[in-house]
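Hey,
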Amino acid sequence: MSNDETKEFLDSLPELEEGKTYNFKCYPGIKCFNACCSDLDMVLTPYDILRMRKALDKNSIDFLRVYTVGHRAPDTNFPVFKFRMSDSKARTCHFVTGEGCAIYADRPGACRMYPLGRATRPDGKGGTKEQFFIVQEDHCMGFNEPDEWTGSSWKQDQGFHEYTASNDRYMNILARVREDGRPVSDKMSHMATLAMYKVDEFQRFIVQMRLFDRLEIDEKRQKAILEDEFVALSFAMDWFELMLFSDTSKLKTKNVPTRSRGQK
């Protein structure tokens, strides 16, 4: 789904108001088990892809080639990667097994939140406002179970808080681009793919281009960025906010003197 299609889809669902509860439980043995793991139209965030890659011990180029279909969003020109289903008749997820998800601990955020959908928007104060929606599909029998949840308690139980910080930052970058009313250039779109979806390649790019020489960033953080892809992804978002919006709240450029034409 595109961002507009996702919004339209969520708007068609019943909203789970703050503090309100619903009943749900999914487990091996329930008659519909794994029925929701096929024919999916799912956009993967940079954090989703990094978690899945690490679980599978794959590099970014191989992962994107095998497990995703990419295009550019028409409103922002940012890269979009959708989860590629298998070629089976049912178009099942590559990772579904009789016992459930083979990468359950690192499954994408949308799978983690199911049966809830989550929509976010900037709150105007540097944070994010979220809404939850109930995705009640005909095949799902989990709603007949006695376990009771609110949106917040389900998010906590499913470990979605680990995803929130990175996903919300990325969505806020996209929201700022939309507010500007102009899609990013093709060059910036390519850089977004490199920096946020090919983080292992981005780490090599940082070294090759001596990127740290142009930025105010201490040696401890430099080391962490080059050794930890999750730290590198956070840095990539800082860097994009600096490049796209001249936002220096998290990252600043050095005042590097430039050579005059007569200098060698």
